[in-house]
Structures are given as structure tokens and as C-alpha cells.
Amino acid sequence: MIHAEIDRRRDGDEGDDLLGALLRARDDDDLPLPRSVVRDQVMSMIAGARTTTANGLAWVFERVVRHPEVLRRVTGESELGEGDAYASAVTYEALRVRPPVAFFGRVVRRPFELGGRLLSPGTTIIVHLRTLHHDPALYPGAATFRPERWLDGRPAGYGWMPFGGGAHTCLGDRLAMVQMRTFLQVFTRELALSPAWPGDEPVRWKAVSNSPGAGCRVIARPR
């Protein structure tokens, strides 16, 4: 279906959406991207971005409903229309304590020193995000869910990396953040939320994703 849509658009209007942008893109030789490359990029957006954003949003709700003071504050912000500073902080903190991606890797391109060891080209470096995000040197009280730590601004540097880091940071990070905090504000404004049971949901690891082990069971009642 994607191949057919690519061919249809190349014979007519390319469109002003993601697919259109990919069709207008050119490589280093000023040639259009091959159909297989365009297809892979579209599939990455459909499959990858949807799954990770959904997992991230599930963890946002799983954490919020187990912290009544956080739920009250984000609900009040949403009801009063006071912007989204606290909703953003809640989202940052949820992605810190429960990053939806378990790890990511980088391959050394040239000799690189890390932790006193010289790594040779071809060496794979794996970054385990939950370990990084719970480093007490970076986050005092790292095990505590405390959105207030982010009220002074967006995380910077390499201590917060749910979307990766460096030149290969996820292209959809800003869109994912907008989606998560928007859903959080709408749901807390329209629904009274509570956990299905008081204990934390376990982390279920599958492929490269971390998701709530019980499926993020939340009780929602009309307000």
C-alpha cells in the first residue's frame, strides 16, 4: 500500500505531509530517495513512533494516578487553563523513571576513551536508560517521582535520554511530548482517575520497549 501511494504521488501531487517531504528530499547526488528508503522512513513513523509514544503515555498515567498530589496539581492546571508547565514536568519525570525504550546503542567510529578505557572502532556501546535515569549523582532522590525537579526547564545534556541523544536524537521527540502532555491535560480535566490497585505496575520488557506489566490499568469516571 505504501509503494502504491509513493508511485501515485510521484506521478502527481506529492502533498505537504511527511510522505511529500520525503518525496521531495534529495541525496548527496541531488537524486530522489529510492522508493525503499522512503518506505522504510514511513514505516518507522507508523510503527516506531506510535509504539514508543503509547508506552510513554501509559507510564505517564501509571505514575500520576499513584501520586494523588501530582494528579491534583496537573488537574488544577488543566482546569484553570494555566498553560502546560506542570503537565510538561510530569511527562519529563515519567519518562525519566520509566523510559519507554529500554536501551539504545552506538558503534564507535574512531578510537574513543570511556571510563578510562580505550574503545576500538567497531565496538558497540549500549546505554541502559533506567540505570542512567536513576543515577543519584544526576538526580537526588532518584527513586522518587517528583515532577517539580523539571519546573525550571527542559532537561539538557546526556543525563535524560528517553529519545536518545546527540546527532541521532529521535526526530519525533517534540511531537511525542506534545501528544503526551495534551492527552494528560484532556484526560485529567474530563475524567476522575484512580489506579486499579495501589501497587506499582511492574516493568515488562519486550524487544527494546518497557511497558506497564499489567497494561496500565486505570479506573476512569466522568467528572
What does this structure look like?
The protein is of the alpha+beta class. It has 7 helices and 8 strands; from the N terminus they run αααααββββααββββ. Helix 3 (35-64) crosses helix 5 and helix 3 packs parallel to helix 7 (173-190). The mean pLDDT is 90.
Count of individual beta strands:
8
| Tally of DSSP helical segments | 7
**Low-confidence parts, pLDDT < 50 over ≥5 residues?**
none
H/E order of the elements?
A: HHHHHEEEEHHEEEE
Q: How many angstroms separate the termini?
A: 42 Å
Gyration radius over CA: 20 Å
Shape: globular
Key words describing this protein structure:
223 residues; alpha+beta; two-stranded antiparallel sheet; two-stranded antiparallel ribbon; 7 helices; 43% helix
Give a quick precis of the structure.
With 223 residues, this protein is α+β, with helices and mostly antiparallel strands.
